[in-house]
Design brief:
about 350 residues; alpha+beta; six-stranded antiparallel β-sheet; five-stranded antiparallel β-sheet; 5 helices; binds 2-acetamido-2-deoxy-beta-D-glucopyranose; DUF1996 domain-containing protein
């Protein structure tokens, strides 16, 4: 794709988007907290910080046997009213040369399919491909490894970063997600005004297990790579799921002055584990109302539009922005911090 001009790529993507309907919508910040009901259920508080979006029943423990996201949530920070799922990732921090850290703000994305408005948070895609079977209640999964430090152990086609030289989130930069010059590492270039992170989940299921001990082996990647809807599934994981993609726009504009950057050669941008792109990860807990996601896939509901055939209602930003919950870990996560929020001090407080 690299040889295509920007205009050609944009035209191609617009064409694909028209040919292949998919859900694409914004989710605002529900909370930023050291909580992880998937990997560390019950733990107060988890070793690193997450940014979480979706239904407001999100909590420290979400036992799939008793925690029904749909009935326990009274609102969602995502645009579709019927989506009470939770989605979360690590948080990006800027490291000042003086040793202080600052959380990087997240903004909605633009792109050829139009601008998404969110207050913090991220953009979510559900991409169907042929006959697609929606997740069942209790389904959960994660991708990425929060302790990995080796970029070579990450498939660039699934988790990647792109440098955005524009401060305008509506200016589309580059080709298909996780193609071309996208990198596993977080870009380290003062010309980046925003850094787009893409996390593409596996779209093939074993058809039996709603979860697995490592939260990954019940799912698998299909053939092909990138945001292609998942491709053909292997016989071990024959059930085709919607392909979920997270897209995060980290607005690094206010940190682009190289004079602020670490002088010891360490990275200016790290995730909340104090590791770069190699440790990027995404977590998902399914929580769509009834069979609304299945109907959305069957009826090829598109983007963040109302979709009567599936009973989907798209909420205005004021509505989903207003859905937030209280941070539980007693520690600051905003402004200049003397350490990443993973310290013992915060845990004792
Ligand atoms: C979270 O769980 C605690 C008990 O573990 C409960 O007191 C609290 O109400 C829950 N919060 C939400 C938002 O459900
Ligand atoms: C580091 O620099 C920032 C930005 O100027 C400042 O707000 C913060 O207090 C400084 N931290 C230390 C430890 O000096
Ligand atoms: C990104 O941050 C810069 C500097 O704080 C700000 O001027 C700009 O409006 C922000 N961009 C978006 C899309 O929010």
């Amino acid at each position: 794709m690299q040889w295509l001009s920007l205009a050609a790529v944009t035209a191609l993507l617009a064409q694909n988007a028209a040919a292949q309907n998919m859900l694409r919508f914004a989710c605002s910040q529900l909370v930023v907290d050291r909580v992880d009901p998937l990997v560390n259920p019950g733990m107060t508080y988890t070793p690193h910080l997450h940014q979480i979006v979706g239904g407001n029943s999100f909590n420290i423990s979400m036992d799939p046997a008793s925690h029904d996201l749909v009935s326990k949530s009274t609102c969602t920070s995502c645009s579709f009213q019927e989506d009470l799922s939770n989605y979360w990732t690590a948080v990006m921090f800027f490291k000042h040369k003086n040793g202080s850290y600052h959380r990087v703000r997240q903004v909605g994305n633009g792109g050829p399919q139009g601008r998404l408005i969110n207050n913090g948070g991220l953009d979510i895609y559900y991409i169907p491909n042929g006959k697609t079977t929606a997740f069942r209640p209790g389904f959960r999964m994660l991708i990425g490894n929060a302790v990995n430090t080796d970029n070579n152990k990450v498939q660039k086609a699934n988790i990647c970063h792109r440098c955005w030289n524009s401060v305008n989130e509506n200016t589309f930069v580059g080709g298909a997600p996780c193609s071309g010059s996208d990198t596993v590492a977080i870009p380290k270039d003062p010309s980046c005004k925003m850094i787009r992170q893409t996390i593409i989940f596996p779209a093939c299921w074993d058809g039996r297990n709603l979860d697995s001990p490592d939260h990954t082996s019940h799912v698998a990647y299909g053939q092909g790579s990138g945001a292609n809807g998942g491709g053909a599934c292997p016989s071990s994981h024959p059930v085709k799921l919607p392909q979920i993609m997270y897209e995060l726009m980290w607005n690094v504009t206010e940190f682009s002055d190289r004079n602020m950057w670490p002088t010891d050669g360490s990275d200016p941008f790290v995730y909340s584990m104090n590791i770069g792109g190699a440790a990027a990860h995404g977590d998902y807990v399914f929580g769509w109302k009834g069979d609304s996601l299945q109907k959305a896939m069957d009826n090829r509901c598109n983007l963040n539009n109302d979709c009567p055939a599936a009973g989907l209602h798209s909420q205005p930003p004021e509505k989903y922005n207003a859905c937030t919950i209280k941070q539980q870990a007693p520690e600051p996560v905003d402004g200049w911090l003397s350490a990443l929020p993973m310290g013992e001090g915060a845990m004792r407080a």
